[in-house]
Every structure is written in C-alpha cells, then in structure tokens.
TrEMBL record, chain A:
It holds the Pfam family BPD_transp_2. The keyword Transmembrane applies. It comes from Mesorhizobium wenxiniae. It is a multi-pass membrane protein. InterPro entries: ABC_transp_permease (IPR001851). This is Autoinducer 2 import system permease protein LsrC.
From TrEMBL, chain B:
Belongs to the ABC transporter superfamily. This is Sugar ABC transporter. PROSITE patterns: ABC_TRANSPORTER_1 (PS00211), ABC_TRANSPORTER_2 (PS50893). Keywords: ATP-binding, Cell membrane, Membrane, Nucleotide-binding, Repeat, Sugar transport, Translocase, Transport. SUPFAM superfamilies: P-loop containing nucleoside triphosphate hydrolases. One of its GO terms (molecular function) is ATP hydrolysis activity.
From TrEMBL, chain C:
Keywords: Cell inner membrane, Cell membrane, Membrane, Transmembrane, Transmembrane helix, Transport. GO terms for molecular function: transmembrane transporter activity. The lineage of its organism: Bacteria, Pseudomonadati, Pseudomonadota, Alphaproteobacteria, Hyphomicrobiales. It comes from Mesorhizobium wenxiniae. The complex is composed of two ATP-binding proteins (LsrA), two transmembrane proteins (LsrC and LsrD) and a solute-binding protein (LsrB). This is Autoinducer 2 import system permease protein LsrD. It comes from the Bacteria. Part of the ABC transporter complex LsrABCD involved in autoinducer 2 (AI-2) import. Probably responsible for the translocation of the substrate across the membrane. It is a multi-pass membrane protein. The chain crosses the membrane at residues 9-28, 48-77, 89-114, 120-138, 168-187, 218-241, 247-264, 299-318. Its main location: membrane. InterPro entries: ABC_transp_permease. GO terms for cellular component: plasma membrane.
Amino acid sequence: MSNAATVSQPVPFGRRLKRFMADRPLIPLIILLVMLVVILQILRPGIVNERWLANTVKFAIPLAILAGCQTMTMLTGGIDLSVGTVATMSAFIMATQVVNHDPAVAILIALVPAVLIGLVNGIGVGVFRVHPLIMTLGTSLIGTGCLQVYQRTVIASGAKIPPFLAWLGTGLTYGVPNALLLFVPIAVLIVFTLRRTGFGRLLYAVGDNEGAARLSGVRYWQVITALYVISSVLAGVTGLLYIGLIKAPSLSLAEPLVLPSVAAAVIGGTSIFGGRGGYTGTIIGALILTVLTTLLTILQMPEGARRILFGLIVLFVTAAYLRIIEDR
Amino acid sequence: MTTNPLLDATGVVKTYGAVVALRNASLSVLPGEVHALMGANGAGKSTLVKILTGAIRADAGHILIRGEARDVRSPADARRAGLLPVYQEPSLIPDLDVASNLRLTDTPVEPFRAWVRELGIPDLDIRETARDIPLAVLRVLDLARALAVEPDVLLLDEMTAALPANLAEKVLEVVRSQGDSGRSVIFISHRFVEISALCDRATVLRDGETVGVVAIEPGVEERIVEMMLGARIEKTRVAARQASQAASPGDSRPRLGVANLRVGTKLNDVSFDLANGEVAGIVALEGQGQDELLAALAGSIRPSGGTIEVDGKPVKFAHPADAIRAGIAYVPGDRTEALTMQRSVRENVALPFSSALRNWGPINMAQERSRVVSAIERLQIDTRAQREVQRLSGGNQQKVTIARWIAAEAQTILCFDPTRGIDVGTKQEIYKLLRELADQGKSVLFYTSELEEVQRVCDRVIVIFGGRVVDVFPVELADEPALMRAAYGLPCGAKEDVGILADIHSSPVAKP
Amino acid sequence: MTRLVRRQGWVAGLLVLFVVLFVITRLIQPGYGSGDFGSLVRAVLPYAFAVAAQTIVVIAGGIDLSVGAMMALTSVTAASMMDGASEEYALFVVPFVLTMGLVLGAVNGMLIVVTRVPDIVVTLATLFVLQGAALLVLGAPGGAVAEWLRATIVGTVSIPGLPGISAWIPKALVLLVVCLCIIWIPLKRSKLGLSIYAIGSSELAAFRSGVPVARTRIIAYALSGLFAAMGGLALTMSTGIGAPIPGPYLLASVAAVVLGGVALGGGKGGLLGPIVAVFVLRLVRTDLTLLAIDPNVTAIIEGAIMVAVVMFGAFITMRSRPS
Amino acid sequence: EAKYTIGVSNTVQGNGWREEMICAIKAQALASGEVTKLNIAHRNTDAAGQLEDIRNLISAKVNAIVVNPADPAGIMSALEEATKAGIVVVAVDQAVTEPSAYIISNNQEQYAYLGAKWLFQQLGGKGDVVYMRGAAGASADSDRDKGFKKALAEFPDVKVVHEVFTGWQQDQGKQQILDFIATGSPFNGIWTSGIDNVIVDALVESQTPLVPVVGADNAGFVGQLNSVEGLVGAAVTNPGSIGGAGVTLALQILNGKKPAEQTVLVEPQLWENATEEGKAKLKSVADPSLSPEWPVSISIPEWTTYTKDQIIACKGPGE
Ligand SMILES: Nc1ncnc2c1ncn2[C@@H]1O[C@H](COP(=O)(O)OP(=O)(O)OP(=O)(O)O)[C@@H](O)[C@H]1O
Ligand SMILES: Nc1ncnc2c1ncn2[C@@H]1O[C@H](COP(=O)(O)OP(=O)(O)OP(=O)(O)O)[C@@H](O)[C@H]1O
Ligand SMILES: [Mg+2]
Ligand SMILES: [Mg+2]
C-alpha cells in the first residue's frame, strides 16, 4: 500500500514544470527561440537591434507561410513539395506579365498555375490516392518544366516588380515590416481554420484515421482537393510576397525554401504522420530556422562546419522540444 | 493451497501524465489456475497485462516470477520468462503472412496448426497476409500462436470479446484444458458466463487498485460487481423483454426496407424491414454475411444487387455520407476503425457535424460543446484522459463511437457488437440507451455476439446463416437455445442441443 | 495470395515496360547496341545503389533524406584517400569507405531511436551534417581513383564461347547484381529481414511479437548507409573524382522506390521493383536525348511519366480492390 | 547545306546565365546554317549524370558535342569515348582535363582577379571587404577563389571581414548581406560572384552608405550601375554567349579548320562606373529589355554571328 502514497505525494517541481510546458507547447519553443537570439547577441554584441529584428521577420514570413502549407498538408498525413515551384512560378509569371498588364491582372494570371497545380495535386492524392510526396514531386517537376518553357517566351520582355509588392516585401512602417500586413491575416486565418472550422477538424480527422472520417460521412477527396488547392494558392501568394522582398525574378527563386518549410513545421510540433500539430508552433519554427541561418552566416567558419552545425542544431532543437512536450 | 504463486505482482503503479492508470495493483497467480482479472472499463486491466509482459514499464511495483524478481523489459523478455500475452488488439504483423509471423516469433508451425484446428478454424492458409484475415480469426491466431509455445502463464485480454459464439466456445474449452494441464491463465473478460464457467479465482481491480481476490463459486457475481463498481453500483438490470413492450410497428411504411440484397458471394437475397421505434437484433455466427449487410446499409460497400428503401423511398448509397444524410449511422465493431485516436473525445464526437461541405465553415463552439457534453454524460464516458481518445480505456473508446451518433441524432443506428469489451454496468446503460432511442421513435439494427443481449434489447430477431436470412421471429420466442439453433442454421423447431448450449448448461455455475 | 500476385505483377509490368522502351530505343536509334547498353548500366549504377539504400529504410517504415549526402561524403572520402596513393592502397580504401557508410548509417538509425525525432527530420539534419563533412573533406571536386577500380565497371565480362551474349553483360551490371544480391538475398531469407518488414508494417505489433525494434531500425539504416557508400564508390569509379555537392539521387531514389512498388509507409515491396524502375527511368532519359526533345520539355515529360505511372498503379489497385 | 548534328550537355538548369548559354547555342547553330539538329541534354545533375548525358549523345551519333562541364576531370572518360567515336568535343565555360577536347572558355580565375583588383584599387589598397562566393564545392567557385586570392595577395592591407557562400541563390545572398549589415561591422567594399543586384538592393533598402560593389555583367546589375545614385561598382563580363562560340569552334573543326591551340580563352572585360569613360561604356551595353539574370554580353565578336533577335527567340535549327 505504500506505493499508493507515492502517487499522492506532491509532484516534484521539475515534473510539474515539464507538465506545465507539455500543456503549453509554445512556451518551450519560444524559450528555444530566445536562447538562439541570446547566443547570437553574445557572439555579435549589438546585432539584435530593430533593423535586425525587422529583417528576420521579413525573411521568416515567406518561410512561415510555406511552412503553413506543410503544416496543413502534414496534418492529413501528406506533404506538399510543390510549394517551392508554385511560389517561384507565380513570382516569375507576375514579374514578367506586369510589364504588359495591370498589376492586378498580372497577379491573377500568376495565380492561375498555382490553382491548377493545387487541383492536380488534390485530385492525384485525393482521388487516385497517389502518395503526396510523389504526387507533389511530380507536379513540381512538371511545373518547373512549364516555367522553363514559359521563360523562353518572355526573355525579351524584361521583368518588373510592382512598387506595392516591393513596399510589402521590403518596406517598414515605424520599423515594423509591412509584410506583417499580409502575414497576420493569413496566420490568423490558418489558426482559426485549424481550430474553429469544420474544414480544420476534417484535416485532423482525415490525417488521423481516414476510415473513421469516412464512416462519419467525410468525403476524403473533397477535403484533400480543397486542401491542396489552398496550399498551392498560399504558396502562390508567398511567391508574390517573396519577389517583393528579393526583387530578382529567377527560375529557382523559392526552391531553397522547400526543405526548411518542412523542417519549420516539424520543429513547430506538427507530426508528419498526420493528425497532430498546429500553426502557431510552425510560426515559431520558421523564426527559429531564420535566426539559425543568421547565426551561422555571422559565425566565421568553413562552410562545411557551418552546415554541420546547422544540421546538429536542427536535430537538437527538435529532439529537445519533443522531449519537453512528451508526457509519457 | 500452499503452492507458491507462479506469478506474483504487488504494488504496481503506472501513471500517464495526470491520469493514474494503476495506483496499487497486485495479482497473484497459482500454477494450474485460470485466474480472472476483472474490473470496469478503465480499471487498468490491460495496463497491468502490458506491464506484466514488458510492453510498457511500470513506475513502481514488484514482479516475482516463480518466486524470483525478474525485470521484464520487453515482450521478448516476457516470452523467455514463460509469460505470453494475447493483447486486446491483434498483434500479428499486418503485411506479413501468417507463416512469416510465426517465424518472426519462433513459433513452431505444426503445434500452431494443431491449435488453430482445435480452436475451430479447420482451413487456414498460412500463406495468407494477416491484413486480409478477419478480426475474429486474427484473435484466434494470436491465441494459437501463444499456445503453440506452451507458455507457463497465458495472459488473455478480452480474448473472447470480438469472437462469435462458436469460436468463443472453442476458446473457452481450450483455456479450460490449459488450466487442467497445469499451466496458468490470466483471463480478462466482461462476460460473467465465461468467468464462472472457466475461472478458479478472480482478482478485481477498481480505479487502478486491486480491491479483492475471490474464489469463483456460485453466487459470487454480485460480490464481484459490487467490488468492481464500488459506489457506481446501480441495479439497472432490465428484465428480459416482453413482446408487449415492443413498440408496435404501427404505421405501414418501414423505416428501412431491404429487399433481395446481395453483396458478392457473402450475402444472398436478404430481405427484411426495420420499423421506426424498433430494435432488431441480428444473430449470426462469425462470417455469415452480417459484416457485409451492415456495411452495405451504411454505404461503406456497394451491394451487387437488390434494393434498399428508406422511409419508402429507394436509395443508393455510394459513400457513408449518403447513408448518414438518410439518417443511417454505423457503429463498427472495431473501434480503431471508428475513432481518430490522437484527437480529443470532443472532436471525435463532433466529427459528423463538420463532414458535409456546407459545414466546413466556422464552428459554433458553444452549441457543439453542449451537444457533445450531453452525449458524453448520457454514456457516462470517463473523460479523465479526454485530450486523446487513444488514452481512454478500451471500453470508454467504445462508448465514444456510440456517443457520436447520439450527438448527431441519427434516426437509424446500425450497431456491430457495440458492447464488445464493455463492463457490466456500462452494458446496462447501453441497453437502456438503445431502448430509449427506440422509444423516441428511432430504429436500431443490432448485431451482437452475445446472445443473451438479444433478449434484453431487441424487439425482433433476424437470423442470418450462410449469407441468407433463415429466420425472423419476435423476441418472446428468442430464448438462447432457440437462437443458437437458428444461428447454426437449424430449423426453429429442432430440439437437440447444439454446441455451446451443452457446455453452458452442464457447467458448474448457472448463468447469472 | 492476391496481394502476392499483385506485387509480382507490378514488377513484371515494369520489366515489360523496360523491354518495350528498349525496343522503342532501337527503333529511334537502330544502331543502339551492346555498348550503349553498357553506358546505360553505368548510368544506372549510382542510382541503383541510392535506390537500394532508400528501399531498405522505406520497407522498415522510414525514409532517408541523407542518401545523396552520404553518397557525396563517401565519394569524396574515397577520392581524396586514393589521390596520389598506390593502386594497392585502394584495396584498403574500399572496405574503409564501406564501413564508414555502415557506421554513419547506424548513427542515423541510433539518432532516430534515441531522440525519437521523426526519421524524416533526423535524416534531414544528417543531410546537412554529411554535406558539411563532405565539404570539409574536399572543398571542391577533386581526388582520384585507382585504375583497377575504374576498370571494374568498364567493358564487358568475357564468357568463353559465348561472345554474342557476353557483349551484353557489362561488368557494371555484374558488379551491381553481385553487390545487391550479396546483401539482399541473405537478408531477405533471414529473420532480420522479416523483422525489417515487421517494424515497417506495424511497429507496435512488431514490438509485441518480440522484435527488437530499436536494433532492427538501426540495422536497416546501417545497411542503407552501406548501400549509399557503394553508391558513393560507384560515383567515384565512374567519374574518377569525388564531388562534395550531392547529385540528384535523393529525389530520384524516392521516386524509383515508389515506382518500384514499395509503399511509402513500410512493410511492403522488394528490391527488384525499384531497381527495374531505375533502369526504366534512365532509359527514358536516354530516349529523350536520342529524340532531341526540347530540354525544357524533358522535365515536364519526366514528371508526367512519374505521376502517370503511379496514378496508373493506384488506379489498378483501386479497381482490383474488392468492391 | 546543313549537315551536322550537334549535341549539347549542360548540368545546371534554371539559372539565367546557363539559359542564355543554351539560347546562344541554338541561335548560333541556326545562324551558321550548317546544323541540322541539336540534341540538348540540359538538366540539373552532377558529373556522373553528365557522363550519362554525353554517352547518350554518343549513342545518338552526333557529330560534335558542346559541353559545359560539371567538373573538368569528372567527365574525362566519356569525352575520351566521344573523341574515339570521331566526335568533336568542345568544352565551354570551363576547361576540361581530357587532352583531346577543345576548350573555349571564360577565364574564371581571371574573372575574379580582374574584379577584385579593381575593387581593392578603388579602396586605395586598404579596407575591409565582404567576399560573397558562389556555391561551396563547385569547381567554378574554386577557380574564382584562386583569382580572388591572387588579387588579395597583391594588396596586403585589404582584409576579408566576411566570407560567405551565396550558393548563387538570390534570396540567400540578400539575407546574408542583410544579416551582416545588421551586425554593424564596418565594411568598405563587396565582391560578389554574380549574385549582385540583390546586394545593391539590400544596401539601398537598409539605407547603409553605399560601398563599391563588384558583380557580373547581368542586365539587372548593369542597370543598377547606371541608375542607382551614388553607387560605384564594376561589372566583369562572363558572357553566357560562350555557348555560341563553342558551336562556332565545333563547326570550324568539323570543317577542317583546327585552331592552333586546344584551348581558346575569352578574356573577361571590366566595365566600371568610376570614370566617365567607363560610364559611357556601361550606358552603351545596358539592356533593360533583357531578363535581369541574363548577362548583357549576348554576343562575342568574331565568335558569334547571330542577331539579338535570334538569341532572344531562343530557337535552334528545325524549331
Ligand atoms: N477546437 C477544439 N478542439 C478540441 N477541444 C477544444 C477546442 N476548442 C476548445 N476545446 C476545449 O473544449 C473545452 C471547452 O472549450 P470552449 O471553447 O467552449 O471553452 P472556452 O472557455 O472558450 O475555452 P478556450 O477559449 O480556452 O478555447 C475546453 O476544455 C477547451 O480546451
Ligand atoms: N497511453 C495512455 N495515456 C494516458 N492514459 C492511458 C493510456 N493508456 C491507458 N490510460 C488510462 O489508464 C486507465 C486504465 O486503462 P486500461 O486500458 O488498463 O483499462 P482496462 O481496465 O483495460 O479497461 P477496458 O475494460 O475498457 O479495456 C484508463 O483510465 C485509461 O484512460
Ligand atoms: Mg482493456
Ligand atoms: Mg473559447
């Protein structure tokens, strides 16, 4: 009977703290983020200033939106590797179309391939049941090919970045990046969708147990098709924002963001197997990766060592975070 | 008895975060004994079995095997120590065939085959992939695999819950013979018939604590129930139903009309009606087509012929969503098929609310909450671990699958063995619930593997054998022998005792 | 039973597809002969090892994003060790590099087991680590290879008395078959192999069946590392150098695994399918070049073929599923 | 009297410079009138992939192969096989080690040396420089590093305060320079390996005092040198049209006019805007209608004969 007493004893502080953090998974993530910033400040005193903060936020936003695409698709047990291609396409098409068209028209034209790729992804995954990794990889190859073909037709037309996109991408108002004007509504919408809408519920349900969702009357293909279209459109919008930030249309503009977007979602606590996770963690994950990139740029060391460190830190952060939020 | 216990566990503690699954469990099993482990849903039975067999680690406690302290760290360790479990969920590797599964566990094939035959499956193809084998057979294979290595202690967690009567009967026979040949068995079941027919002693768990060990003797059931349920005890026994109580089908249009329904080779020419306010029971042995019948009515599979009418209008279901729109809900027998395990109880219950395209928008949280909470209360779901359904005990998970359709106010509910693995108290609640639904004018089609339940809940009995309806009769005529005969495809008037009936009536303890 | 038929059917279908493509190739380029087939096999070599490395972890229910980086690291290690060294020294380099792959793969597995971070993230992290390590070994493409090593994949075997046939058996093919079989066949027959399928099919059930899940996973990743090291050596053998930037092997390996009928998710499939899929994909590339297709269109075609084949596979699975 | 089939192998796709190279090859093949068909293998791959492509081109029985090598030494064996099969091999952009191959190349070492030397002189031989390289592990990058180091050795008072690999990615380059600016470390000049216009953008956006910037002759950067107030900088030519020159060389050899040397180097030029004369030159070469990633040097006198319209149309024979 003495064991029964053990259980009713006051829980040690460490465990209580862990339980507290496990219930609020954002807190350990934020602590990790702050730790990275502090390390940065120690290594380069003075770097953490207003300008740096603004830059970090500016670069984290496109990553965070793409990571939002990954978060939502990962909730259903999928992944969207075509976001990089889609973002690049919409950016490149917009920049070249705006030469001859009104910016609004150019943006609409630029989003057409995004919708199409999303639709194809959705139908492939939702109706034909192709594995999302393969499906989105395939459409991303196809998209890249189409973009190559397209770019040949516009070599001589030049490219332009509409001023308002540049304003949105790079501008600051009272030291606050204008990109937040786009990002905050998107983030709120994603968080709200996941937590408080039927569609959000279905994403979790489908990812957790597709059969159970089906028995509850959920039509898988509808959910998946809508999801991949939404993901693609978000990626397209990211492309427009990103071109405003980078101001140099290229055929591989957003490709480097793809793997980090997956990493950001995972660091933020979304399970790649589906059914669990959320967007707020992902946003912090994107910030962590951005700060980490800065940290490594600032450190003077051979490129090889930099990459090794990057890999190790990503692994460490994810492992530490999982350790903390895990309560079994 | 002065023999030393073969297995002796004391003071076992296991907590999952804030949930205490076991607070102070003990269990002592003598050689040659069939020992029942009893407790309400969520009492911690499965947790104890998992700890004893190394599938999870205890936070505290002592485990002695043959008087020696042994640290059982994994199922492989347990196996070496002579402890072999059959868990509540099937444990064959789904993508390997049976032969490879045997090889993986170093199980000798010939003894295994012999046991499989003994357990009532004469024609098993061991090249078949586990995934393609029906649940009930898988359970039997699990058992045969355990038996084949001749363990000292066999731990059976709700082994019979998913089995139809004919297979369950064989299992009981085999377990009995294990005890006779000097091996011990730990036997978990919610069915008193089985406990009393089989076991020598019972350890009773309540809320993670061992509250008593009793010898099984006539009349002990009441005491066990008292110990199991503690303050929860409630005398809710419904007397066997009388025909007079049955809601009269009254208006001429049946709720559900099935005519000449066919599904592949499994179901042939099935016709029957289900009225509003009626609970119709389906009685069948394993694999007689009842799975296909309910799945077809639920829109899960497409029938290959025949018609289904709802409220007099012919319908074609291409997807469960169509059936749900027509007011027909399906509760599958395997709860892992019905639940999103990582999600909360609330989300699971509320899932059908959002399924239709028009409900993809914002959720009215307050309204949802009240609907969910009332369904949870109605089924008395233990919501301590409600953040994730997978942390609920098996029985409570089962209740969530039903609560969903109570909350969704389905007009017709198709239940496939809804009381599988549910404790006595809860069973009573479910019977009451189904009756109440019927009284509210809803209709229920109810397949059960426990014949006794038919008398308690149903108005009418539909007997299926070999994919055909062989008999339909009112509940007054449905005593167990009659049901059993019918289930074996024997005409209603036949007299000879068949199968399990002989055993039950000849067993030392009368059924409660 | 039907499952077995279906799976073998898929591999058979791929083989037929390969033969059809081969015939088409001969039609496009009537002179396409044994020498060209030898080129094809040499092109297949690094892909085949990458795919083998990926297959084994996918069957074990994981995924390995570090395959390409592992190949790069082992390749630069081999190339830099052999640079300026004697021919005999290579006899030591080869086992050294293979062991290195095995150990690094095991480290991958251990990290997954110990940190309990999902494999896709662990191997993403090790992708960066291995890539970094490769850059530290060789900052730019360079190094050398022993002549005898290079010779093992050039030319054809000579079967006395059968010159016609032996012309069609390039040494590279022999090397590939030997390397894969020497590991795969005993594995497939052993309990370890079963355990790998088991943990991929259902980790919980495997654990409950007494499979040492952690150890099996580590071994699967170690073998993957070994195959990747073979891939790295193959790269060095064919190019004569080591390049620290990974080639396109990661995505190609995942694509070929799926085309080869191995389910992402684990527990199903074999090695033959993915290897045949690699041959098919390489031959498609050859045909695109022979046909002088606009290079910008080739990406579209390759992507479309991948999607179409997998969709077709999904479609026939759907059709053959009992209604 | 078109009679030749020419194969092309290139291992980087989607980069403005390489796209221009491919278009130059097509345009020159068309303009020469001697080419019936181009077999182009143009994709992202490594040296082993290029071996595969070259061998496929050999199977296709082309008369000549123009190759931009992924690695000079790594593709030696296939080039040797090609020459043995009687195919003329011309390497462009970078040298190859296969002795039988002809080489017409931009001089990468000289490219870096020229720009770096100009920059250091501009700083008065003293100051802190940011060194933004290309992709770690790429052979063009290590060649340029040699040139840069050579110039650096000549100016002992110039210090590299920050060295980073942009991976030839615009977004990475921009984030890296912004991060560096944020550290507040002083710097007096920036040398880039062709990721140039985003660097100028970053300086302008963050309102940092402009420092001299060296880049490549990409249309975007050349435009900036002409238009950004207060920007001093230099563009070093690295013509993508070298591909067209490769075709010309291959055709000459096929027609029996072998060059005196196996290797023909196209020396880079430097266009700066620090002097009036330089400004005039920059104005004359600027081409705002070009895609900003395309080098403005779309032709090489004596080596290419196509018109601007032809290269922009990017159509080869038979298209
Ligand atoms: N989307 C959701 N899914 C699952 N559970 C939820 C969800 N939203 C809320 N809950 C949980 O259900 C319970 C009641 O939620 P409800 O939103 O009605 O109350 P609340 O007081 O507004 O809570 P909160 O604002 O913190 O979400 C709480 O325990 C809450 O954590
Ligand atoms: N992984 C887990 N995480 C949290 N709580 C858990 C977990 N597993 C079990 N529990 C809790 O432990 C308690 C005991 O569960 P257990 O499965 O042992 O019950 P049981 O007696 O087998 O019930 P049943 O008869 O319904 O199968 C339950 O309250 C359950 O919610
Ligand atoms: Mg249980
Ligand atoms: Mg609220």
